[in-house]
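hey can u run this one w/ iron/sulfur cluster bound, need the structure tokens asap thx
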Amino acid sequence: MKIVTVQIARPPTGTQEWAASNVNIQNGCEHDCRYCYAKTMAIRFKRATAASWGQPRFRQHDLDRSFTKRAGRIMFPTAHDITARNLDECLLVMTRMLAAGNDLLIVSKPWLACVTRLCAELDPYRSQIVFRFSIGSTDEAALSYWEPDAPSFAERLACLKTAHLRDFQTSVSGEPMLDGNPDAMIAAVRTYVTDSIWLGKINRLRQILPLNCPRDSEAVRRGEALVALQSDKDIRALHARYRRDPLIKWKDSIKAVIGLGRPASAGLDL
Ligand code: SF4
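ok here u go:
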């Protein structure tokens, strides 16, 4: 008897929920978030150490590449951020993707100087762009602990207002939620959001922290406290509060708890 193996495609998770493909131009990220999965993968595969991740290096072949029109939206970046140090290079590569007719999801913990320039220089491509700013909390202390070299909440909110004022499509990612009060973040940003506010749990923290923050018992303690705020009971209550809110979307970590359907293919932003 002939045995036929049928490959069942796994539903998209992580960045695949948002975009069909992604582009990055450097190894490492100066924001150096304690929960960063890209950092964990880089350490595991010996592309970085816990100490070197915060001093990124450009990948010349990614700076030199050209682009054609791809099927589906491209997310930029996914494994670093857009900062004053790499803004020229990010603009160069983003402009190449846009000029080839691609739609772009620009995801960032944004700096106001960067967003002001992005809005000015990418204005000719405005209809091809959605900005998605990562804002996991309104609590400056929580942000500065988990994302030590990233902008404050006040600066990220100013970026969102700027992009909204310039008529770009705007979105917020509350993944990972960094406190027990995502309602405060939603209330603070929703006036300036045209597209969506995504909510998601903090993922894989017990595997990530030993590599990203070796021998850091404070990070472990704070991580356990954060995970405890995202119990299934808490997530169900959060979903019940916002299930009819047209702006709110649920990342894979929340879909799994609630039992929501998964998108059939990557990049559907559902
Ligand atoms: S901004 Fe993103 S890529 Fe950079 S360290 Fe933080 S989570 Fe990682």
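Strands lie at 21-22, 26-27, 57-58, 74-76, 104-108, 129-134, 169-174, 196-199, 248-250. anyway lmk if its weird
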